[in-house]
Specification:
The protein has about 350 residues and is of the alpha/beta class. The protein contains 13 helices and nine strands. The chain has a nine-stranded mixed sheet. It binds pyridoxal-5'-phosphate (PLP) and iron/sulfur cluster (SF4).
Length: about 350
């Protein structure tokens, strides 16, 4: 009997009991620790590291587990490791490319007809180096307390709004209980039909898809969709697939948006594989975005013509429903700009 009990490896037990919040808390914040785990040294990298960037390093362990060891060009690693190039001042790359900083009312972005974006949280589980919100002074933009009340009033008073989009930061960083309360309040607004959650958290920490979360989403009268943010096929492992399957079973419509990123997903085979892997996980490609021209991210940028060519090539290789729309975000337009 005793013998049998000791057969279960300790690591496996730990794996079963570790909650997403623990992974969040224990996220790696030191680039050297990250490289060390991957059996890499700073000298092996193609670039100089930036060890003191104000946009902190943040990479949870389950995301690190999807990286290849001994590979300085790993496409997941390159999305999260700070390079000294981020400090280069490059013309045209600015702090607030979408001019969102002064938008009113705070906590809410109501730029497009019929749908509003509710800023639920300022933080993310993972810090992506290309992120257009890297300089965004979020803390005072988050819809909590009085701002949340104002946001609800704004939505309730505008009968044209039929969809609320939870955004951030990453909206899934709030607790299940908080989400449950919030969704129940939204359900009281009669004109609302749909709720959408834009998140990268399940990619960083698949354990975030808790059974409780699935139950909360399943019981809602609102039609719920989740727009995941996956850039590379290697981000989809068996654990993520399993967790996404729970969402599908809870009647959540799963879509994906990516950002086209140099040296990460800017080739036809990678994009093809991404669409294939998404579909096999029950997710349909929705958008692929051109990079927002944010200061510090110029080294990820792909020009529009190259991007168009890639998507054209993708369309020759895949069924139409596996080809994402190539889009870019332009300040003060009334929708995203679809390029192709
Ligand atoms: C992207 C975005 C939306 C959603 O646009 P869809 O085309 O419906 O996906 C809504 N509001 C804002 C401010 C956005 O940036
Ligand atoms: S908002 Fe999305 S892209 Fe930006 S850091 Fe958070 S998870 Fe990454």
């Amino acid at each position: 009997m005793n013998n049998m009990q000791t057969i279960i490896p300790v690591s496996q037990i730990e794996c079963q009991v570790k909650s997403w919040k623990t992974y969040l808390k224990e996220a790696i914040s030191d680039p050297l620790v990250l490289l060390n785990q991957l059996n890499l040294s700073p000298e092996q990298m193609d670039f100089n590291l930036d060890l003191s960037n104000p946009f902190a390093t943040r990479v949870p362990q389950p995301f690190v587990d999807k990286m290849r060891r001994n590979d300085p060009l790993d496409p997941l690693l390159l999305q999260v490791i700070a390079q000294s190039q981020e400090n280069d001042d490059i013309q045209g790359y600015i702090h607030d490319p979408l001019q969102e900083v002064n938008l009113q009312p705070q906590g809410l972005l109501h730029k497009y007809q019929g749908r509003v974006l509710l800023i639920l949280a300022s933080a993310c589980a993972i810090n992506c180096r290309y992120c257009f919100r890297r300089h965004y002074p979020y803390q005072d933009k988050v819809a909590t307390g009085k701002l949340l009340k104002q946001a609800f009033d704004h939505i309730a008073n505008d009968t044209s709004i039929t969809e609320v989009i939870l955004s951030g930061g990453d909206p899934l960083i709030v607790s299940d209980t908080y989400l449950d309360d919030l969704i129940q309040q939204l359900e009281q607004i009669p004109q609302l039909k749909r709720l959408r959650i834009h998140t990268r958290l399940p990619i960083a920490i698949p354990q975030r898809i808790t059974l409780k979360l699935c139950q909360i989403l399943q019981k809602s009268r609102l039609h719920i969709s989740m727009v995941l943010h996956i850039n590379h096929p290697n981000e989809i492992d068996n654990l993520l697939k399993k967790q996404l399957n729970l969402l599908t079973q809870a009647n959540v419509t799963l879509l994906n948006q990516s950002v086209l990123l140099k040296s990460i997903n800017d080739d036809i085979n990678t994009l093809c594989q991404l669409s294939e892997n998404l579909f096999s996980a029950g997710v349909l490609p929705y958008y692929i975005h051109l990079l927002d021209k944010v200061a510090g991210a110029a080294h990820f940028d792909i020009n529009e013509n190259t991007a168009k060519q890639l998507i054209n090539d993708l369309r020759k290789r895949l069924p139409g429903y596996l080809v994402p729309r190539l889009a870019k975000e332009e300040a003060s337009k009334d929708s995203k700009t679809i390029i192709i």
